[in-house]
Write a structure and sequence with these properties.
About 65% of the residues lie in helices and about 5% in strands. It is mainly alpha-helical. It has 2 domains: about 60 residues, Winged helix-like DNA-binding domain superfamily/Winged helix DNA-binding domain (Arc Repressor Mutant, subunit A), CATH 1.10.10.10; about 140 residues, Four Helix Bundle (Hemerythrin (Met), subunit A) (Up-down Bundle), CATH 1.20.120. It starts with 20 loop residues before the first helix and ends in a 9-residue tail after the last helix. InterPro entries: GntR_C, TF_FadR/GntR_C, Tscrpt_reg_HTH_GntR, WH-like_DNA-bd_sf, WH_DNA-bd_sf. This is HTH gntR-type domain-containing protein.
Length: about 240
Amino acid sequence: MARDGIGGVGLAASPVERGSLHLQVYRKLCEVISTGELQPGAEVTLASLAELVGTSAMPVRDAVRRLIGERALELRPGRRFGVPRLSADQYREILRIRLLLEAEAARVAAERIADDELAGIKRVQEELAHSDRAGGTRRELWTLNRQFHFGIYEAARLPQLCSMIAGLWLQMGPLFNHLAVDIGTRRAAGYHEMILSGLERRDGEAAAEAMRNDLLSAAEQILEQLSESGSATRKIA
């Protein structure tokens, strides 16, 4: 197992800019985890995480404490930390909750989204499609995918709901390593277009259904990989 579990070459996040350093470091690590840059079960240190986000160990220490509380990281012996390895049953539980919350966020977003927000989300999807055709890196593709989804969730203007969804993405983000990037993004493209169509028509039920199908499509691949690791195959949700 690679010590830091970083899935590829050249994935170091851009250095943290000045400002509220502790909050920026926390957000940067959230992005790293929720887009699958750290593999399930990977071991990390304060030094390796500090190098990844381009800062010193002090603000990373505070962020790690918070991430442990949010179940995105776990404490291990020897002052080390790790990325939890979810079982198929744990993933199914997270998926069931995501299906409820993210479909609801899409439904409400269809009622509340502003024209400029919708235009921005469309641009992200265009960037995602272009990056996929151009052979973009795993990090680029999953980062754009996250921007697409959270652009919708934030448009619902339900901050508590959005916060809960973000916490679930933190817990399951490393499982993106179980997805074949080319297959995953091309499958998602069709569902993303259906979601956008629902938003544009202000059809909340259509947007919610397309969101559910998008999540279930990715879940099929993830559960196949988890099942091959020893978990019994069962109905997704």
